[in-house]
Amino acid sequence: METLYLIFIDPFVQMVVEPAFLAEVLIGGLMSGVMYSLVALGFVLIFKASGIFNFAQGIFVLFAALNFVGLMDLGVHPILAFVITIGIMTALAFAVDRLVLRPLVNQDPIILFMATIGIAFFLEGFGESIWGGDVRPVRVGIPDAALFWEAGFGEILVQSSDLFAGVIAAFLVTVLALFFHFTPVGRALRAVADDHQAALSVGIPLNNIWVIVWAVAGFVALVAGIMWGAKLGVQFALSTIALKALPVLILGGFTSIPGAIIGGLIVGAGEKLFENYWGVPLLEGATEEWFAYIVAMIFLFFRPQGLFGEKIIERV
Amino acid sequence: MLTKKLATAGLAAAVAVGAIAVAQAQEGQYIPVLSYRTGAYAPNGTPFANGYVDYFQLINERDGGVNGVKFIVEECETGYKTDRGVECYDRLKDKNGGATVLSPWSTGTTYALIEKATNDKIPILSMGYGRTSSADGRVFPYVFNFPSTYWSQATAVVQYIANETGGLEALKGQRFAFIYLDHPYGREPIPTFDILAEKFGFTYDKYPVPPATMTEQKSIWLNIRRTKPAYAIMWGWGAMNSTAVKEAANIKFDMSRFIGNWWSAAEPDVLPAGEGAIGYKGATFNGAGTGYKVFEALKGVSGLKGGDDMGTVLYNRGMVNAAFVVEAVRLAQEKYGKGKHVSGEQVRWALENLDLSAEDVEALGLTGLMPPTTVTCMNHEGTNPAILVQQWNGNAWEIITDWIPAMTEIVRPLIEQDAAQYAQENNITPRDCSA
Question: Looking at residue A311, what DSSP letter applies?
Answer without folding.
Answer: P
